[in-house]
Amino acid sequence: xxxxxxxxxxxxxxxxxxxxxxxxxxxxxxxxxxxxxxxxxxxxxxxxxxxxxxxxxxxxxxxxxxxxxxxxxxxxxxxxxxxxxxxxxxxxxxxxxxxxxxxxxxxxxxxxxxxxxxxxxxxxxxxxxxxxxxxxxxxxxxxxxxxxxxxxxxxxxxxxxxxxxxxxxxxxxxxxxxxxxxxxxxxxxxxxxxxxxxxxxxxxxxxxxxxxxxxxxxxxxxxxxxxxxxxxxxxxxxxxxxxxxxxxxxxxxxxxxxxxxxxxxxxxxxxxxxxxxxxxxxxxxxxxxxxxxxxxxxxxxxxxxxxx
Amino acid sequence: xxxxxxxxxxxxxxxxxxxxxxxxxxxxxxxxxxxxxxxxxxxxxxxxxxxxxxxxxxxxxxxxxxxxxxxxxxxxxxxxxxxxxxxxxxxxxxxxxxxxxxxxxxxxxxxxxxxxxxxxxxxxxxxxxxxxxxxxxxxxxxxxxxxxxxxxxxxxxxxxxxxxxxxxxxxxxxxxxxxxxxxxxxxxxxxxxxxxxxxxxxxxxxxxxxxxxxxxxxxxxxxxxxxxxxxxxxxxxxxxxxxxxxxxxxxxxxxxxxxxxxxxxxxxxxxxxxxxxxxxxxxxxxxxxxxxxxxxxxxxxxxxxxxxxxxxxxxxxxxxxxxxxxxxxxxxxxxxxxxxxxxxxxxxxxxxxxxxxxxxxxxxxxxxxxxxxxxxxxxxxxxxxxxxxxxxxxxxxxxxxxxxxxx
Lengths: 308, 407
Hints:
The complex is a heterodimer of chains A (308) and B (407). Chain A is α/β, with parallel strands linked by helices. Chain A has a single domain (16-305), classed as Rossmann fold (3-Layer(aba) Sandwich).
């Protein structure tokens, strides 16, 4: 099940052009990577968020595949319901078995924060679906507010840089680790610039016999304050600085999928985005140090888990 | 447009089997008989009996339903929405605070025109914490776009549970239905009821064929899109129209069910109203108590009557106007409150419906049984006494009376 670029170019698109996502947004890239990697029909549930509002504006839809949007927090539960209905309807002969994949696209707000309970419940129940977290580290759809995925020191509209506060005051959740603790068949962290790694992970997730979770970094040029053309460069920097390591937990086995040849200092990541501009000022040096220490600590811990 | 009548060949009455069961178990029995594809539920007192009984049906292979045991009521209805969008026949059950937690997605279910059936075991809302019956939870969903049926007895809860499927899935309706019974009183009280044979129920409810399914990959659909100022209003108007069409469907399904079982239901059920000069209007289990009070008053030469409302949404204003318009004085019995409102919920509905039709009798608001306070016959004898005094004194609109309350 190799990912071959030449073959991908001839596949039909699952997401039509003409949607309303911002120029430079990585979310449409991630969605297309997922749908191409699967190569078979998907039934999609969307959480409320940028992707949903930009692709389902009635009377139009950008989706060439079926999608259902329920609310902000419950996309995992919604797809679980659809999957259960599929099982029941096939069993009583109402529909023929179909080679479909159940997929959720949800932002980090929907995943890390408001929808954590719904996701956890759906994983525990073991519905067969792929949950893709489009992690742009904040509530971008409502105008760049902080989420549980937002890192220490980050400027957002609800963690403004003020006289007393240098942006966000707390670290971020280890969501991938939280999901791995559910001991589901497949969990991975990915980024869109590493397309082959990501699409291979999508295929592994698609062939899992239970739920799978893909936490995908989804750079947001509007919220992160960088030029639209730099989306993939920013994605790459997150991985090269080890702020966003690429790894997977396949049936409980932790595996590091990419080791930077020269691990870059986090300052390179911070310099690439306007939301961190204040951190580069001398008075915020201690925060940058703390970020570097935390990143180093997490990187060490991950390598131990991956037994490298 | 003519309303489609299915299964018209069912004309012979089917003999039911007598059972002594509590209402909740009886409703779980009906859930098994209507053969849902998916049931998603979360246990909450007093609904728990349904969840447990249905779990047993699943564990024993007595039903082929996929039973999703969720981590909350919000998730239960959320899963129902996904399952219904997939084209399945879908049910859930809850009570009081569980319904309150579902509130957000109640509107998602109706707005997407998903014919989900919910069995609601009416329970008071916190705070203070209370697990007993009142109708605060029911009234909280009155504007959510669900058809709402209310049962007096376990038998009615069973009968409504079966009819609810036909109403919800009717192509002219396609709305979710809440089938309500009173917590503990009806859910836990053991009564003599009759259950239909499985085949008769299966034939009555038929097979659901959804107009759209997200599983039909050859014909992709987008369910639950973003709808701004340019279309939202029209879609809401369509929901209103569907609810209007449900009026006829509720009665038509009841008629068909009556032919099958001999038990006939309408949107309203009058009791000794032919010549009534004083009457009350009630919902739920208290109707039985009111009947004995009416009988007592009749024996004393007082021309008392009572109207039980079975269908709260769509609200049968026309039928109520016909029944109550000519009565001298009418008491509206609420088992929930609307602090600071123009009146308590049922009172406001009834007085509005009657005033709109220019046939408003003198009306008075009574509140009883909040948080499970026992509705004793003496309270209602007092209510009729107050109403007769109102009539004789020619009193103008007076304050609500709180029955059985320590003041």
